[in-house]
Each structure stands twice: as C-alpha cells, then as structure tokens.
Design goal:
about 120 residues; four-stranded antiparallel sheet; about 30% helix; GTP Cyclohydrolase I, domain 2; alpha+beta
Length: about 120
C-alpha cells in the first residue's frame, strides 16, 4: 500500500458548537492520510492521489462553518473518496486550538478512520 499524507495543515476557520465560536473563529490543525494500492506506473500522477487536490478539498470543506468537527472530518473523507475512488483507507484528524471551555489544554481533537 502507498501512503500519501498532509501533516499539520493550518487553517483559521469558524467551526464550533457555540455561536460565539462561529463568529470569532479559531485556529485548526488538520492531518489527512490516505492509502491506496501501489500504482503500476508510479511516475504517472493519474494512478495516484494528488496531495495538492487533497489540500484543495480540505480547504473547501474548512471554509464552510460547521457546529461539529465530526461533520468537518466526515465531509473531507467523503469528498476525498469521491474524487479518488482508488483510496482504500483514510484518516482525517482535526485539532482545534485552545477550545473555549475553561480548561488549560492545547487542542481538542476529532479523528475519523475509514476502510474501503
């Protein structure tokens, strides 16, 4: 299996359960990992997954405010698989910096793994 990943992609977005979070926004860190069968011709991008396209998908989804991070990682997973049917496994991890609930923590985190 071939693994292709984007690590620690930083976004400023307006996701959050509370209205104030969606108004003010927050910093997020995204990791995307996909696995696919090894291409027969690894020098041809058409047989692989273009990580620039993975970034574009992620950026498009991150620009749409959602109440739950679970919805964000789901939407990224669905769009990646639709664009690249060759994907056999995906993991999308989204971390929200300093979520505003009074605790002293760096990030909250939601991750979605899928086997196809």
């Amino acid at each position: 299996m071939l693994t292709i990943a984007l690590e620690s992609v930083r976004f400023f977005a307006h996701h959050g359960f509370y209205e104030q979070e969606r108004i003010i926004g927050n910093h997020f860190v995204l990791d995307v990992l996909v696995r696919l069968p090894e291409p027969e011709h690894p020098s041809q991008l058409g047989e692989s997954v273009n990580y620039e396209a993975l970034f574009a998908i992620s950026k498009e989804v991150m620009e749409v405010p959602q109440q739950l991070l679970e919805q964000v990682v789901h939407d990224i997973s669905v769009k990646m698989k639709a664009r690249f049917p060759v994907i056999r496994y995906s993991k999308v991890t989204l971390r929200k910096q300093a979520p505003p609930f009074g605790g002293d923590l760096a990030y909250s985190c939601v991750a979605l793994e899928k086997q196809y």
